[in-house]
Amino acid sequence: MGLCKCARKRMTNLFCFEHHVNVCEDCLVHDHSKCVIKSYLNWLEDSDYDPNCPLCQRPLVDGECARLACYHVFHWTCLNRHAGQLPANTAPAGYKCPTCAQGIFPKSNLATPVADALRKQLETVEWGQTGLNAHPSDDSNFSATGAAALNEGVSTPNSYVRESQRETTISFDPKRSPGAEILPERDTLRRTGDAQHGRRDNFIPGIDSDTSEVKYRRKPFGEWISRLIRAYVPRPSANDAKAGMRRLFIAVLVILVMLLTFGVFMTSVNRSTTYEDALPELEKIDANPIRIEGGSRDQ
Fold it and tell me: Which domain holds residue 228?
């Protein structure tokens, strides 16, 4: 993208290969009508260009030129001769650019300075007038034919689509509520999916089944461990073959931790009991004097 140097200062991607400047379409028509114009990216990839007419291989500056909507430029006389060689019954789509094979006639909804200038040149020749007048007439004929087909029920693609839509509308029963039909399907899908994965409503019997009578009652230690395991271990499903082994591993791990805790507790209790049992003997030793050869001394 670049900024055109004209007074309009428009951003444009068009680049003049001869003058090495960005040009907008207004400048393209008035000041660069015989220059080779392509995108700026094309110029960055390859800056070489041919200043001759692709049809006659003579310099473009030698005569009047016509620029197509694809921005390829030709001598107007060469382009007119090229189009005149085609059969008289050639459709407008059959007139194509000799370089890129795009249509010569600009689209009816294309409103650019280049397209307007091209239309003015095409209106000066017979084949150009025929091609320009064919587009709106074809569109109007097509619209009239389509409307008649829809009203009369003629078997055309458009009428087939409309008839299909009408049949679909007629087959709909207005007495049935859409919500009444959709909601049961959603409930069925939800129940089916939960049953397949084994987690319907995420229900955990040990946690969610408490009633108001036993909710605040003190629970035994074993039930607390069971609730803890069920809360943190995912429930097994039909598609999970390792769920049973996982639950067994967690249970064994909890049991080992409990045994280790119990062992540490019993060891500390035994040590304190041994010390209390040995304390009277130590007091007796302290109470009796210690006799040493050569005298006696109390401690």
Answer: 214-275
